Amino acid sequence: MDRFLQDPEGEKLLTEHNRALEAAEALRGTPFKPKMTRDELLKQFKYWQRTNKEHSRRQSSGSAVHVSFAIPIYPPCLAPLEGLKKVMLKDLLLETHHRGSYILVRSITQAESMGAVMAIVEDEEKDAISLRMLNEKLRCQDGCVDKGQILLVKEPYLTSMSDTEYVVRVDHVSDIMFIPFFDEMVPSAWRERIPEHETSQWMARDWLSMGNEYLNRGKFYSATECYSKGLECSPTEEEKHYLLYYRGLAFFQVDEWDASLRDLDAVPPGPKSDKALRGKAQTLYRLRRFRESCDQFTKLCKKNPEDVSARNDFREAIARLVEQKKGIYNFSKMQEKASKTHPPLLDHATWIGPVTVSQTESQGRGLFTTEAVKVGDLLVCEKAFAYATEHHSRPRWSSTLHVNTETRTTARGGQLALASLIIEKICKTPSLEAAITNLHSNGFRQVSTGLVDGKPVVDTFQVARIISLNSFGSPTSSRGDHIHDARDASGSPGRLHNCGTWPYASMINHSCMSNAHYAFIGDMMIIRAATDIPANTELTIWYLLPAPENRPMDFRHWGFECSCTICVDIKATEPHVLEMRVRQHAQIAMALKKSSEYSRSRAEVLIDRLTETYRRPLEQVLRLGLWEPLILIAGVYDSLMQQDEAREAVVQALAAVGFVIEGGVEGPLVVKKWGLAMDNLVIAWIILWRTLLGVAPESAKQAARYARMAYLICVGEEESFDATYGMNFKVAHEPVEEGEVEGWVV
Ligand SMILES: C[S@@+](CC[C@H](N)C(=O)[O-])C[C@H]1O[C@@H](n2cnc3c(N)ncnc32)[C@H](O)[C@@H]1O
């Protein structure tokens, strides 16, 4: 799960924000009296633009923190336009949501992105005000709000932004409508381009050529509006053919897959029929409906066997279908692509393995096995619904702090960017909405769904809540993270942190005694069994890594307390014992930093004492706090070639986290039961391999196989194992093959 943690500045900011909210509350219902004239507003806007540019520069140098607040939540407008009454800016009341009303305004500046999108707008009476729109880049329209753009704000919310200024604030994308210049609502004074009397005479072919003009200029939304007007003007069959084809194409260009498919499906026969068929196949591919996409490609390739480009696309669609149906992936290629692409969005299908969503007894829905699976088996390989990244050369998230007054939490990072992507995707393709709105929202009251004024109603606050409970933080690849962790045991920060939503994986509940493990290659999540799991068993993962210091784990963010045996035991342990464990951890690490035999003996004694603090038998409660110290000391013995001591420490470490192992030196090495997929698990097996090499070569080979299995679980694939760890398994007489070890050596 997402590990964007609480920010220490959060409490202070929350208190300041709550004070500002109280002050605002006192103004509720007061008539709006602008504090600035229109000219002053424009002057101030220019000043903002300048400081905003400065701010962006400082942000990229990491010295400024941009704070965004989630105001008290409010639902989006559910009323269709015809049920709303037009009001003027002067009619608005402060700190009030004007339910049942709308304002029609025109932008008198180019919009500027300042956390949210800001523009100065005027109404027909030339009163001006700032308009603040949440959606980062307004991707739902042709790029941004140009000067002169006419906007309609449903149920506007007037609020104070500072001591000097008021804004109309729009948090829900569906509350704002972009009005085309030719719409009959547009007052004649605002019709700068083509006067009403002229467009009212237009025929379908005029709209078609105007649409094509926009299409050629890349103004796809404006183009769709013209084609729609054309379709309303009793077009001939031929005109209808072109209007539908080009509108489908324009929708395709802006990722509106539902609309694109609807239009391309309805194109009457004509010169563009083959292109429409091709468009349909491609749209179905984008909708991840690979079977239907393949059917369309089959028809197309039959009609045009010489079309090489169609054949290539068909091949890709078949590859996706195989992934979707069989779960067969080329993980090496995926790793390579993820390492070379930014953002690392991979074009692969989701495969749902032998698992199903069912109701649990007390934890809502959960994911269950439908058949017995073996350790390492692939359970799910899921493409992200949405995935937000920041580029290392332009880090932005570390300087963005999101304060949520509702949950009293703060988060740095990409959750705002992720929300923006998800909202955009749902707005553009409403058929995808349920994948998000079905996710756990901890009782958030969902507004009624369906289209209003032809667009889906999207509740920004609902999406934000769902993201906070269901998004995952992710490295660009778990392999990269794995190598980084093993090289730098201090876990120093500074790595890229992406975040995304994987709806199917979001069905999995947490347990510290997890039996499944997830890893990432770009935006693909790979979930594998971390142990043998019988049929009809609930899968669990870690939302937070079990704390090695043995502090009680805090899952308040997700609204539950973990009831696994480890957590129950920690809660039953006296606080002074937990504190002692933390001290002992630090002392052991310190002792092992020194190279004397005395320090090692002291570390041994401290580990024994730490072991004694666990009262309940290992068979009943795992001892996660022993893992790190034992792996550390095993590594030290291994480097000193004290193989017996190293082996003993590793075997103890593995037992502490639930492994049941038989044999080794005497008899074949067998893992009877796999334990938890801890960090450094691969290294543990490599140390064991080395300690067995001289005394039990067959068991050593088995340990090497277990190292590979541990890698498969932790990294998601085993193809890159040799490149990562190959050097460790070379024995003295074997030459190292060129290019084999691009990784590193334990
Ligand atoms: C990502 S969702 C998991 C799927 C969820 N159970 C559902 O019905 O959609 C996270 C939510 O599941 C529940 N949950 C997850 N792990 C839990 C656990 N160990 N104990 C109790 N509730 C848990 C909590 O309500 C948590 O906020």
From TrEMBL:
InterPro entries: Gramillin-biosynth_MTr, SET_dom, SET_dom_sf, TPR-like_helical_dom_sf, TPR_rpt. Keywords: TPR repeat. This is SET domain-containing protein. PANTHER family: TPR DOMAIN PROTEIN (AFU_ORTHOLOGUE AFUA_5G12710) (PTHR47643:SF2). Residues 353-544 form the SET domain. TPR repeats lie at residues 204-237. It holds the Pfam family SET. It comes from Penicillium chrysogenum (Penicillium notatum). It comes from the Eukaryota. The lineage of its organism: Eukaryota, Fungi, Dikarya, Ascomycota, Pezizomycotina.
